[in-house]
Amino acid sequence: MTQHGALSGIKVLDLSRVLAGPWAAQTLGDLGAEVVKVEKPGAGDDTRSWGPPFLRSTHDGSPLDAAYYVCANRNKKSVAIDIATPQGQRLVRELAPNFDVLIENYKVGGLKKYGLDYDAIRQLHPRIVYCSITGFGQNGPYSHRAGYDFLIQGMGGMMSVTGRPDDEPGGGPMKVGVALTDILTGLYASTAILAALRARDVHGVGQHIDLSLLDVQIACLANQATNFLYSGEVPQRMGNAHPNAVPYQDFRTKDGFIILAIGNDSQFRRFCDAAGLGCLADDERFARNTARIGNRDALVALISRRVGEQTTKHWVDLLHDKAVPCGPIRNIKEVFEDEHVAARNVISRLEHPLAGRIPVVSNPIRLSETPVAHAGSPPTLGQHTESVLTDYLGLDGRRIQELRAQGVLG
């Protein structure tokens, strides 16, 4: 693990599983915190089995952990403790005072029966920053429901504005292609944790962070939410079109698609001049963005005809030269083959104890003085059980073996 990151010296106890919590903990680990992940012996994080694809052993090619698990668990140590047992609960309570942060995503009240809830841990460690991530928050009529990204995208409004309109082929609600609500919740969690750590430095006490996937999803409706609040009109699915800017969508070219992302009137004029449609920039129906929104269908039809006459490459080369925001629609393979993406070093390679050198997507944060480090590969289940319990609690090998024999440790 990195010793010189921005969060060097901060210790995080990660009791979370799947994506939102692990993403938050991984972000802190990338920034230099020491992260210890507590997992169930024999099974571990649910996503270890969410494959194929899987990591493969360099020894015999056998499957190891799923690629899904790899995306959210680098820069961590894994300790296999069964917190359903009294001895396992005691071990976690003894570990907690050694840590600055605890992250968990159990159902509301799920850790209270184990004596690992915020109130119990705070009694042992008043300076703890305790982050609880749930589907619906710690209070309210839905607080005891389980919440998953797909469900929250539906309940939180995202799917109502994602996808093609109902009256078009393929129309209907659509989720985003990655678990975006989980990712955004993880990022909000890491931000909240950093804020709470700063407050602790000033005031000397920790606090409880109550983070809800539903709250995050609603917050991230952004302009769609405020459009409704200020107009009273319910936003609808518009495919790839934008409710507040035109033209801001995909167009079919002679051999594929291009995205035009026209954000202001001067960009629109430059596009029209480059495309041989200069008359449109002087047309009162299209000269201003407000007018273009009101005449969206007519304008899109005119642009579509013109764009369809040339290839994607033609338009990208032409419009980039004119400072018009545009680009092709790529698959993920094409993304990683892009020369600019390669220049930004978005793939890092880590040494895994069983799978050799493995690729991971780099953290996008670029800090000039305390750079992010991708130092530790996602750990195997229980890889650090003995070292963590020895270093933090002083347990010797004999005691650890006893606990293993009793099924408390993996």
UniProtKB/TrEMBL annotation:
Keyword Nucleus included in the entry's annotation: no
Keyword Transferase in record: yes
Source organism, top-level taxon: Bacteria
Keywords assigned by UniProt, alphabetized: Transferase
A Pfam entry, by short name: CoA_transf_3
Molecular functions (GO terms): CoA-transferase activity
PANTHER family registered for this protein in UniProt: SUCCINATE--HYDROXYMETHYLGLUTARATE COA-TRANSFERASE
Protein name (record): CoA transferase
Organism: Verticiella sediminum
